[in-house]
Design brief:
- This protein is α+β, with helices and mostly antiparallel strands and 187 residues long.
- It folds into two domains: 138 residues, YjbQ-like (Jelly Rolls), CATH 2.60.120.460; 39 residues, no CATH class.
- Helices cover 28% and strands 32% of the residues.
- The protein is built from five helices and eight strands; from the N terminus they run E-E-H-E-E-H-H-H-H-E-E-E-E.
- The strands form two sheets. The protein has a five-stranded antiparallel β-sheet with strand order 1-8-3-5-6, with helices on one face. The chain has a three-stranded antiparallel β-sheet with strand order 2-7-4, sandwiched between helices.
- The two termini are 16 Å apart.
């Protein structure tokens, strides 16, 4: 194989959001705080192929505070084990300050964030925000442990992940419509 100097090829960039439905088939509107895992490898591979990247990097970021990203084997019994482990790590039934909705917002800074991300966007009042907030501190904690991003090299047009590895979106507060941001950069 002959290496082509990178200066001879133009670097390309693509940022796209990928939507993942995490079990909304039954018409559920309110999250049940279920944990589910979803293989998003095919969507990421398709973006790399569409852009024609031979060598570069893919960065993936969760767009939610109660989802996470990881790379591991996508095998049914292991997925069950992951969900069970997350439930043991931070049980949904645990006692968490975040779940004391009647005490929120707890500061002027909290109120400013609710205003910026909810009220000023025309989504409703503070009372309407509190009314729609799920009891989900456990999901936030698990998401922090797992992480919100993954970065994967691309070589010769392929993701550099192992034979048994998949890119997995972990929904810790579903089912919902979820989104990940995918940035592909390379030549």
């Amino acid at each position: 194989m002959t290496a082509v100097p990178s200066a001879a090829r133009a670097t390309q960039y693509l940022y796209e959001r990928v939507a993942v439905r995490t079990g909304l088939g039954d018409g559920v509107l309110v999250p049940k705080q279920e944990i589910s895992l979803h293989d998003i490898t095919p969507q990421v591979e398709a973006l790399v192929q569409r852009l024609g990247i031979r060598d570069g990097t893919v960065n993936i970021v969760s767009q939610h505070t109660t989802t996470a990203l990881t790379i591991n084997e996508y095998e049914t019994r292991l997925l069950d084990d992951v969900a069970a482990f997350m439930e043991k790590l931070a049980p949904a039934s645990g006692s968490y300050k975040h779940n004391d909705l009647h005490l929120r917002p707890a500061s002027d800074a909290d109120r400013a964030r609710i205003d910026r991300n909810w009220m000023s966007l025309g989504k409703g009042t503070l009372a309407e925000f509190i009314a729609q907030e799920p009891i989900n501190a456990h999901a936030h904690l698990c998401a922090m442990v797992l992480g919100a991003t993954v970065t994967i090299p691309v070589a010769e047009g392929r993701l550099c992940i192992g034979q048994w590895q998949s890119i997995i979106l972990v929904d810790l507060d579903g089912p919902r419509e979820r989104t990940v941001g995918v940035q592909v950069t390379g030549v």
